[in-house]
Structures are given as C-alpha cells and as structure tokens.
C-alpha cells in the first residue's frame, strides 16, 4: 500500500537517504519520534501555560531538530518561532499557543502517516 503524503507536512527524503534501505532503521526512527513527540509537545504547552519560557523554548528546540529529520518543515518553522519568542522572556502567550496548536495538528496528521509507514517497514523485517 502506498501512502499519500501530498497534503502532509512530511518529506521522508532525508530519512530514506540516511536509512540507506534499512527498514529496521526506519522502524526505530519513526518509533522513537512517535514515542517522544507527544510528551515534548505537552512540555511546550505546559511551559507556555506556566510562563516557564526556558522549558517551553527548550522543548520546542528539542522537537524542532527531530522535525527536520522527517521533513516536517512547516511544523519545524512554527516551533522555531515558539523557541525564538520564548527566548525574549515575555512572549505573546496567545500567539504562541495558536502556533503550538497549528504545529500539533500538522504533527498529529503526519504521525498517523508515519505510523502506517512504520507498520509497512516492520512487515518487511
């Protein structure tokens, strides 16, 4: 089954290049992302809610790097904006919360596709 990535914030070119044909690498990489992304997104949300700018910015920074690995460039740009705003020490929480919700929606949609890709790759092991 081929998964349509057309309308997703997802480009697996880099992942496939690094995996160099290894389904095991793809399964492990996607698995780690699917395990860690929800907690990291929650960490950003908690940081924003509690005005803990270093925590929110740090969590955004952590996830931002991972998103690049999966070609989630729109989500990555939103998290970069959150990270940058948190560094100012007095960000617009409403604006950042909206950006986080937008990133979360993109990441959730891409995660569903990644889960299917992981299943397919695992079937090849």
TrEMBL record:
The modification Phosphohistidine is found at residue 61. It comes from Mucilaginibacter corticis. PROSITE patterns: HPT. Signal peptide: none annotated. InterPro entries: HPT_dom_sf, Sig_transdc_His_kin_Hpt_dom. Pfam families: Hpt. SUPFAM superfamilies: Histidine-containing phosphotransfer domain, HPT domain. The keyword Repeat does not apply. The keyword Phosphoprotein applies. One of its GO terms (biological process) is phosphorelay signal transduction system. Keywords: Phosphoprotein. It comes from the Bacteria. GO terms for molecular function: protein kinase activity. Residues 22-124 form the HPt domain. This is Hpt domain-containing protein.
